[in-house]
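user: can you give me the structure for this one chain? C-alpha cells are fine.
assistant: on it. calling the predictor now.
[tool input]
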Amino acid sequence: MRIGNTRDADGVLTALFSNAARLAPGASPQYCPESRTPVWHTDSTYRASPPIGSVLYCRRAPPEGAATCFADARGAYEALEECQRQELDGLECIPRRMRRCATTAAAAWGRQVHSYSPDYPLPTEEQRRANPPRRVPVVLRHPVTGMRALYGVNSSTCAVVPRGEVPQERLDELELSPAEDESVHRILRRELLPFATSERFTVVWQWEAGDLVVWDNRCTMHAATGFDHHRHEREMWRTTIIDRAWRV
C-alpha cells in the first residue's frame, strides 16, 4: 500500500491519504481525550485474522511533521496495578469499521471520518459483509512469547463489554450507532489510552527518506501525525504481514 499525498499528472491521488492532526516539534504523543488525538490504534482488529505486523518504508518525507508514534502495549500492560490487569483481562472491545450502507448511523460515522479526511475511502458492501462486527480482547496473550499486551485499545472502539457471548444483533447495534458507548469513554479514553501512550511507553519517529520500520501488531500501537500537505509531499510504502493460521 502506498500512503501519502502524491498525485499523478492529472492531479489524482496515487496514495491513501489521511489528514491526521499535526504534532508540534517536541510535543508529547500522549492521547488527549478532549481532542481525541493522536489517533492511536492497532491495525485491522475488526478482521477475523488481523495482521501480525507491518513494514513501513519512507520514500519521501516533508521537512517537518508527519512523524509516526509507536507505543509499547506490553510495557503499558505490565506497568498497570494488579487489580487493573485483572479487570482488563475480563473485558473485550468491539471495534468499529466504517461502513457504507443505507443507515443514518453509518452515514453519520462516515461524515465524521470524512470531515478531516475527505479522500479516505469507505469500505465496499462486499468488504463490510466479509467483516461483520466482532469482539476482540482488551488484553492479548502473544502467541509466540506468551506475554500479555494491551490489544483492541483503538480510537475506533465503539464499546467495551465483559468477556463472553454478545448477541449478533447487539454487536450490529453498537457498531452502527453514531453514539459512543459510555464504557469506551470511561475505560479507554479517560484512563487506558492516556496511560498507555504516555512518554514512558512511546517513541516519536521523525521520518527521513530511506527509513524502514517493522513492528509487531500484537503488542504495539501506533499513530500517524500530520504535516503541511499543501506545500510538501510524503510517500510511504507499507507491507502488511499476515499469518492465515493466527486468530485472535
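assistant: here you go. The longest strand covers residues 53-60. The radius of gyration is 18 Å.
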